[in-house]
Specification:
The protein has eleven helices and 15 strands. By secondary structure, the chain is α/β, with parallel strands linked by helices. It has two domains: about 280 residues, Zn peptidases (Aminopeptidase), CATH 3.40.630; about 110 residues, 2-Layer Sandwich (Alpha-Beta Plaits), CATH 3.30.70.360. Strands 1, 2, 3, 4, 5, 6, 13, 14 and 15 form a nine-stranded mixed β-sheet that branches. Strands 9-11-7-12 form a four-stranded antiparallel β-sheet, with helices on one face. It is globular and about 80 Å long. Belongs to the peptidase M20 family.
Length: about 400
């Protein structure tokens, strides 16, 4: 017999978990993430689901067979570095449990119904978020993706080969898919202030981007070099991080430097280079452009004063996503669920941009914390999420007329 939600959740808990921090390290094509991929396929086969895969490791498990006007749910299994348990896996486990619930009700879908897992959603290894869904939807070409490298210099192509994967084929995993529903733990504190609403529906995703800032200066001795004689890129970076924080606060947007690499990374040396990655998000594309522009301008001005140089390279930029208002209303209105925006990126946003009718369900997060070992959700809310997802899938995949998708 397939495991129920709580048993599945317990079986995933140890995989990729750090004994020291309690966080998760489930990077794409590494051991923990591949173990999770095998776990998913085992769970799917135990339910008699049929599997379709692509050469990047993306997979859809079908109740029946794939075909036209398909409805797909699911999420991802990879994590950020030292991440939380719920971001991604909650959507996958809930999807399997929702199928179980539908089967127990005697539900027979009128449209093909599948559960998906997309690889490298977080971008934690190769730097491009939602890489699996971008490849599956054609938003990124294989020629572009194959040469991306991780922090150790391993390319996507080499990582795939090590995992016995061949790379995307010409046939699309998403052929026939017209509707996608992703359940996800809420990443923020909207639902916690609505005691009667453990479930929310997404209205859209803020535009966001990742930008590589390369500060260059001159390496020198930390003891013998006078302060006025230095060209220290760390100073330029430090001012830039403070400027990003200030500008984001003034605009009520988001700007974060969360990753930094220093050369030569020596305690008693003035560094020659600092490379830092800015994550910026805003309520509109124009606001994002304005925020990023003013941060870069202030950083460039500071570099001129410090005798350093700056090169800024956008590594990925995603525009605003507005999920189908009609689909959101169809899901939310009869059930009294609130419709709320999110500043976090998701595979659902990529599929929506590719023309697939898309919706998201959020499960209440009592702390709002995410991308952290402290990320959590109450089991009662998770089980409510399973019920909610099952009801939504029954509505969408059981409709023979098909006024959605």
């Amino acid at each position: 017999m397939p495991d129920d939600f709580e048993a599945m959740w317990a079986s995933l808990a140890p995989i990729g978990r750090s004994a020291s921090s309690g966080g998760y390290f489930r990077q794409p094509f590494a051991a923990a993430e591949r173990e999770l991929a095998s776990w998913f396929e085992e769970q799917a086969l135990a339910r008699g689901l049929s599997l379709t895969r692509d050469g990047f490791g993306n997979v859809v498990a079908w109740l029946g067979s794939p075909g036209p006007r398909a409805v797909v749910t699911g999420s991802h299994l990879d994590s950020v570095l030292d991440g939380g348990a719920y971001d991604g896996p909650l959507g996958v486990v809930s999807a399997l449990a929702a199928l179980d619930l539908l089967v127990s009700r005697g539900f027979s879908p009128s449209r093909p119904l599948g559960v998906s897992v997309f690889v490298e959603e977080e971008g934690s290894r190769f730097g491009l978020a939602c890489l699996g869904s971008r490849l599956a939807s054609g938003a990124v070409s294989w020629d572009t993706a194959r040469s991306l490298t991780d922090r150790s210099g391993v390319s996507v192509e080499d990582a795939l080969a090590a995992a016995s994967l061949s790379g995307p084929s010409s046939s699309s995993l998403l052929d026939g898919v017209t509707t996608f529903v992703e359940l996800h733990v809420e990443q923020g504190r909207d639902l916690v202030d609505r005691p009667a609403a453990p479930i929310g529906v997404a209205s859209g995703i803020w535009p966001h981007g990742r930008y590589r800032y390369e500060f260059r200066g001159s390496a020198d001795h930390a003891g013998t070099t006078r302060m006025q004689d230095r060209a220290d890129p760390m100073l330029t970076y430090a001012m830039t991080a403070l400027a990003a924080n200030k500008q984001a606060r003034l605009a009520d947007e988001r700007a974060t430097f969360g990753r930094v690499e220093v050369t030569p990374n020596s305690t008693n040396s003035v560094p020659s280079a600092v490379t830092a990655w800015l994550d910026a998000r805003a309520s509109s594309s124009s606001s994002l452009d304005e925020l990023v522009g003013v941060i870069e301008r202030q950083a460039t001005e500071r570099a001129a004063r410090d005798g350093t140089s700056l090169t800024v390279t956008p590594e990925s930029v995603s525009g605003a996503v507005t999920f189908s208002p009609e689909l959101a209303a169809r899901i939310a209105a009869p059930r009294g669920w609130p419709v709320i925006p999110t500043a976090a990126g998701h595979d659902a946003g990529i599929l929506s941009a590719a023309g697939i009718e898309t919706a998201m369900l959020f499960v209440r997060n009592p702390t709002g914390v995410s991308h952290s070992p402290a990320e959590t959700a109450a089991m009662s809310d998770c089980l409510a999420g399973v019920e909610a997802l099952a009801d939504v899938l029954a509505d969408l995949a059981g409709d023979p007329v098909g006024d959605v998708g």
